[in-house]
UniProtKB/TrEMBL annotation:
Domain Cation/H+ exchanger transmembrane, first and last residues per copy: 13-405
PANTHER family for this protein: NA(+)_H(+) ANTIPORTER NHAS2, SODIUM/HYDROGEN EXCHANGER
The keyword Electron transport appears for this protein: no
Descriptive protein name: Sodium, potassium, lithium and rubidium/H(+) antiporter
Length: 415
């Protein structure tokens, strides 16, 4: 199938599954599409078991595997999704919470990687470095999933900013950590740095380079927008920034996710205030909300279909089930330690830790990173465990975190 045919099929299925969810399941849109996609996938497998001569499952598996989920997300959709998410996070709010956001997105990711990786090494007997790779890809919270849930929960602004800001930045940081660890664990892979010195240089180049590139491109786009008063052209400029900036970051070997976040933050704050008319702001806001919703639907549809890529072996599924607990423990460490460090300087209500722990949803980024691993004996186990954790996180945590947040996150003293 051509790219256009695949894209058309995904959009049609996302629309149909979205309608099914709206009419019958009535779950939050993205989660509902994921659930319907999972049910459809399992339905195909059951039919194949009853009528194996039709080879329906094999045909579906070939179609799904022909879509490079990792490339589609990491090299395409992710830039738009991160830009859209960052566009609606205000710098003024982020500045007030920058210490917590910074510590959780850096120290938190590192702690979670170590906790999960060490635990996975102990559970499976996997080499420690390879297990740390799993820890790094499952540690970042998925901004797409997290921001989608935030829209359903009426949180205090300070808590919402912590969750949204951290999810945007720890995604980029986690991706860089993943690249570093893959280079150390699989030194024969040409696409990643190998050796400690090369790994350190890669981290600095990716993280700082991505931030600088995003700010520079965002500033240049803002300066151009100040000279223009045409909402359609200005919307096009933001789209060009998200697309072109992401691809330029990939070409320059700097962190494209961090670039997208920094550019989105600058346009959403400085650009919206000083470079757009009120009419343009309304159109830019509506356009990127629509892009976010459409890509979100397609992404969750693809996650549901990726079940065909999972190895259904009992040992792998058991490891995946146990990894759910590991992921939650790692997330708890990523949240609780920064809170303890900052507690002498500010007050935190008890609700912050449980909400941010349970609300640290995993998503398509983790699956994409697992799929992007070089072929090795541990990849099927890592992919299966990742998929189990992601499905649990999106469906179970995603459907309950709003209630938890509304119960604890609206306390008057929560900051």
């Amino acid at each position: 199938m051509t790219i256009l045919q695949i894209t058309s099929l995904l959009i049609v299925l996302a629309a149909v599954f979205g309608a099914i969810n709206y009419l019958f399941l009535k779950l939050p849109s993205a989660i509902g599409i994921l659930v319907v996609a999972l049910l459809a996938s399992f339905g195909v497998m059951l039919v194949d078991m009853g009528l194996p001569h039709l080879e329906i499952a094999e045909t579906a598996r070939d179609l799904i595997t022909s879509i490079d989920f990792s490339d589609a997300l990491l090299e395409g959709m992710l830039g738009l999704l991160l830009f859209a998410g960052a566009l609606h996070v205000k710098l003024a709010d982020l500045r007030e919470q920058w210490r917590a956001v910074f510590l959780m997105a850096t120290m938190g990711v590192a702690l979670s990687t170590v906790v999960i990786g060490t635990g996975f090494h102990w559970l499976t007997g996997m080499p420690l470095l390879v297990a740390l790779v799993f820890g790094s890809l499952i540690s970042p919270t998925d901004p797409v999933a997290v921001l989608g849930v935030l829209r359903e929960a009426n949180l205090r602004k300070s808590l919402e900013t912590k969750i949204a800001g951290e999810s945007l930045f720890n995604d980029g940081v986690g991706y860089v950590v993943f690249l570093v660890l893959v280079g150390l664990a699989f030194p024969g892979d040409d696409h990643h740095a190998s050796g400690l010195q090369a790994a350190a240089l890669l981290f600095v180049q990716e993280a700082l380079g991505g931030a600088v590139l995003g700010l520079v491109l965002g500033w240049l786009t803002f300066r151009v927008m100040r000279l223009i008063d045409d909402y359609s052209l200005e919307v096009l400029l933001t789209l060009g920034l998200a697309f072109g900036g992401y691809e330029l970051a990939v070409f320059l070997h700097v962190s494209a996710p961090i670039m997208a976040v920094c550019a989105g933050l600058l346009i959403g704050e400085v650009g919206a205030k000083h470079g757009m008319s009120e009419e343009t702001r309304d159109y830019v806001d509506a356009f990127w909300k629509l892009i976010d919703e459409i890509l979100n639907a397609v992404l969750f549809l693809m996650i549901g279909f990726e079940v065909f890529a999972v190895a259904f072996e009992v040992d792998f599924l058991l490891a995946g089930a146990l990894s759910i607990g590991l992921a939650l423990i790692g997330r708890l460490a990523a949240v609780a330690v920064p809170v303890l460090i900052l507690r002498p300087f500010r007050t935190f209500a008890p609700g912050v830790v449980p909400i941010m722990t349970w609300g640290g949803l995993k998503g398509g980024i983790s699956v994409a990173l697992a799929l992007s691993l070089p072929d090795n004996e541990w990849k099927p186990l890592i992919l299966t465990a990742t998929y189990v954790v992601v499905i649990f996180s999106i469906v179970v945590q995603g459907l309950t975190v709003g209630k938890l947040a509304n119960r604890l996150g609206r306390a008057p003293d929560l900051v």
